[in-house]
Design a protein that fits this description.
Rossmann fold; acetolactate synthase activity; THDP-binding; 20 strands; amino-acid biosynthesis
């Protein structure tokens, strides 16, 4: 046998390449790259400095240097909310980490998937009150889904991969990864993908079939049903499935503050936002219903009013991916734990099976609700002091910009007006701090949203009080070419607090005047401040100039635009349910409540 005809000797299998030895700091950056992260927000400091060195060389991860850690946290929230991806923020130890706590708590309340990576002092110094030491894991434990403390470089890839898994699955939320400086400096093999073992973490996605059938049967029998839609529909990317169920059932839909955009405002079945400042039809639809189908909502006090008096004649179907929310405030007749996208498909199928596709007989219910819509449309009265109406300004921003934009509000009156008077047609177009009510959220959240969605117009609709808490992020926007639009609804006061003082404290306006608006010292002058930051700055004091200013903002995309809209301090948010009473006492305007029959 010649060499040419000899049988080939099989080669042994190739050995896997040895995992490269890299520093823990490099492992942080490499892990982010492997997870597909393209943008992070942060500020370097001593305990996180090792990570910032390889971060400088990364071609896949863009770092946006913010001016305050809270701004970085809110930017990560805005990024996550606008895009549906996980937002990432980075800070150093001690005060750098504690400055993130507000944003982390905000993300926890509103179920926003962010990962916060913080540096920690050397493990040998922990517990000694070392310079810039803070127990950030202990501090954030109540407001995170999970917190990791990493003291060994080999654990870094697994901790970061697990953080992303936890943040983005089940009920989304914030996860903290705190890494000691010695772990960042230590050299270890980089193994990817790492083994992610999360014992006990098994989010339920598929609901029990019997519960689905029971819910469908209640829907088929109901004469006064309401689909009570919460932010979970948006977080669960279930808007399309919600639309299908609404069409099948013909039931009225209400969308909470966190769910604006989950169901189109233009749809005939949409009654608007329920709650303390909800529309009269939405508030009374819930209150007088015989069946509430709660979808990713948590019966927040701002929606229910006094919980013991909420919807006294209604049975409740409560759907949520978080079992802890079921029956927490209102006992559910049919509890359903599962992923809303799957549950809504199953519920729609079961409902159509029971009804054979026939439309339900709820004409009497709709006749009542349409009567409320006719009698109590959403509106506002012109201020008597001759200054601009804030509602008009916000409504025109929405009308001239359109539904494809992203709108990020601060907290207070302007937040409610933005939720009421801008029409939302798609999910992820409305960003706000709903659960925590964090002043200072709007500007950095808008910044994060613009990074995530650079081709969309992004408005920050802010109050003169909120704006003064985080406006330094305008510097970040200018330097990093993030051209957001900022509308300051400048009523020269802490507006919502002032409204409550007017209504409930005999008009004693204690420490709510900010001296930024009409007839005041104008400290600061928002136009000069914005110009100092390198923004295009405008001031509008007459309604006839509103549209031109908005159009200028829409046409300017080479830098941020800040518009100081000087409005009346006397404008109030209506409708309103006073705190601690039944929703039946919703006030359409001051001293005006709809007549209703308590026996119904």
């Amino acid at each position: 046998m010649t060499a040419d005809t000899a049988p080939a000797v099989p080669r042994p299998p190739a050995r896997p390449a040895a995992a490269p030895d890299i520093s823990g700091a490099e492992a942080v950056v490499r892990s982010l790259e492997k997870l597909g992260v393209t943008d992070v927000f942060g500020i370097p400091g001593g305990a996180i400095m090792p990570v910032y060195d390889p971060l400088m060389d990364s071609t896949g991860v863009r770092h946006v240097l913010v001016r305050h850690e809270q701004g970085g946290g809110h930017a990560a929230e805005g990024y996550a909310t606008a895009s549906g991806k996980v937002g990432v923020t980075i800070a150093t130890s001690g005060p750098g980490a504690t400055n993130l706590v507000t944003a982390i708590a905000d993300a926890y309340m509103d179920s926003i998937p962010i990962v916060a990576i913080t540096g920690q002092v050397f493990s040998t110094l922990m517990g000694t009150d070392a310079f810039q030491e803070a127990d950030i894991v202990g501090i954030t434990m109540p407001v995170t889904k999970h917190s990791f403390l990493v003291k060994d470089a080999t654990e870094i890839p697994g901790a970061i991969a697990a953080a992303f898994e936890i943040a983005s699955t089940g009920r989304p939320g914030p996860v903290l990864v705190d890494i000691t400086k010695d772990a960042q400096q230590q050299v270890a093999p980089f193994v990817w993908p790492p083994k992610v073992d999360l014992p006990g973490y098994r989010p339920v996605t598929k609901a029990h079939g019997k519960q689905i059938q029971a819910a469908a049967a209640l829907l088929a029998e109901s004469k006064k049903p309401v689909l009570y839609v919460g932010g979970g529909v948006i977080r669960g990317k279930a808007s399309e499935q919600l639309y299908a169920l609404a069409e099948s059932t013909g039931a009225p839909v209400v969308t909470t503050l966190m769910a604006r955009g989950a169901f189109p405002d233009s749809h005939q079945q949409h009654l608007g936002m329920p709650g303390m400042h909800g529309t009269v039809p939405a508030v009374l639809a819930l209150q007088e219903s015989d069946l509430i189908v709660s979808l990713g909502a948590r019966f927040d006090d701002r929606v229910t009013g006094k919980a013991s008096l909420f919807a006294p004649n209604a049975k409740v179907v409560h759907v949520d991916i978080d079992p802890a929310e079921i029956s927490k405030i209102r006992t559910a007749d049919v509890p359903i734990v599962g992923d809303l996208r799957e549950v809504l498909v199953d519920l729609d199928t079961a409902y159509r099976g029971i009804t054979s596709g026939a439309k339900p007989d709820i004409e009497e219910w709709w006749s009542y609700l349409d009567g409320l819509r006719t009698e109590f449309p959403l509106g506002y009265s012109q201020p008597e002091d001759g200054l601009m109406s804030p509602q008009y300004v916000i409504q025109r921003i929405g009308e001239l910009t359109g539904p494809e934009a992203v709108y990020a509000a601060g907290v207070g009156q302007h937040q409610m007006w933005a939720a009421q008077f801008i029409k939302y047609e798609r999910p992820n177009s409305w960003l706000n701090s709903g659960g925590a009510g964090t002043m200072g959220y709007s500007v950095p959240a808008a910044m994060g949203a613009k990074v995530a969605e650079p081709d969309r117009v992004v408005w920050s609709i802010d109050g003169d009080g909120c704006f003064q808490m985080t406006n330094q992020e305008l510097a970040t926007c200018v330097i990093n070419n993030i051209p957001i639009k900022v509308a300051i609804i400048n009523n020269s006061s802490l507006g919502m607090v002032r409204q409550w003082q007017t209504l409930f404290y005999d008009g004693r306006h204690s420490n709510t005047d900010l001296n930024t608006g009409h007839g005041t010292a104008r400290i600061p002058d928002f136009v000069k401040l914005a110009e100092a930051y390198g923004c295009l700055a405008l001031r509008v004091e007459k309604e006839e100039d509103v549209d031109a200013a908005i159009q200028t903002a829409l046409e300017t995309n080479d830098r941020p635009v800040v518009i100081d809209f000087v409005v009346s301090a006397d404008a109030m948010v209506w409708p309103m349910v006073p705190q601690g009473v039944s929703n039946s006492y919703v006030q359409y305007a001051r001293d005006h409540a709809p007549a209703f029959d308590e026996e119904d």
